[in-house]
Amino acid sequence: MMKIKKFLPLLAIAVLLPSVATASVIISNTYTVTTSGHAPGVYLTDGPNYVSANAYKYIYAPVSSGNPKNITSGSTIMVNYTYGSGTDYLLNVLEVNDNDVSGVMYLNGSLPSGISIYISNNSEAYLKGSANSPSLTVTNSTGPMTAYSFGSPINLVSGHTYYISFVIDASSFASGSTGSSSIAINYYYE
After folding, report:
1. How far is CA 9 from the centre of its chain?
2. Mean local confidence (pLDDT), 116-126
3. Least buried of 16, 45, 120, 156, by fewest C-beta within 10 Å?
4. Which is nearest to 96 in space by CA: 44, 29, 174, 18?
5. What's the predicted TM-score (pTM) here?
């Protein structure tokens, strides 16, 4: 009798194994899979003053019509100036949106001589001047701003918007002169 009691559990396992192994072949389910676009955590898009600056041909960027709108990597952005105008201020024409990233962002590259870039953290830039001085200062809610120095770190805060402005000293360009450059936006998660 002892031999049969030891043999029955082995027989039960032996009988179950084939049914378990073939069950995945016999049962078949169909599932619908859909996909949708998702913006990266940090992306470049048009700023609040882009539409008016673009209407006057001061800037052009290929902004997608997706949701959210963005300017894809590798795009060419054209910034123009009015010859002889002195200084052209293209404030808040682009922005970097930070959906859900905490980390550090860097802008690397160069701009043609006579063009400065300003980046304002979560507060739009504006011009400030006085009746006693003909010069204007780019400023934001925290005070006067300095031109961004390429390679300097910008601490990212999830949910913030970083406004990009260009100041063009048009007097530094000869009539009809052009220049090109390349800028990369790099960001690193913490």
Report:
1. 63
2. 87
3. 16
4. 44
5. 0.74
The label of the residue with tokens 């001589």 reads 113
Instruction: Quote the CA–CA distance of 105 and 7 in Å, as a whole number.
Output: 68
| List of E strands, 30-102 | 42-46, 59-60, 78-79, 87-98
Which tokens belong to 10?
A: 């082995």
Measure the CA–CA gap between 42 and 132, rounded to whole angstroms: 41
Which among 117, 123, 115, 127 has a CA at the least distance from the CA of 163? 123
All structural domains of the chain with their residue ranges: 42-189
pLDDT in tens, 63-93: 888 778 888 888 888 888 877 778 888 999 9
**Beta-bridge mates of residue 60:** 78
Look up residue 112 and give its two tokens.
Answer: 């043609």
Preceding omega of 68 cis (within 30 degrees of 0): yes
Q: Which amino acid is at 66?
A: G
Question: 91 vs 49, 59, 118, CA distance in Å?
Answer: 7, 11, 9
Q: Which two tokens stand for residue 149?
A: 């120095």
> With the CA atoms of 90, 78, 81 and 131 taken in that order, what torsion angle do they form, in degrees rounded to the nearest 10?
10
Amino acid, res. 42:
V
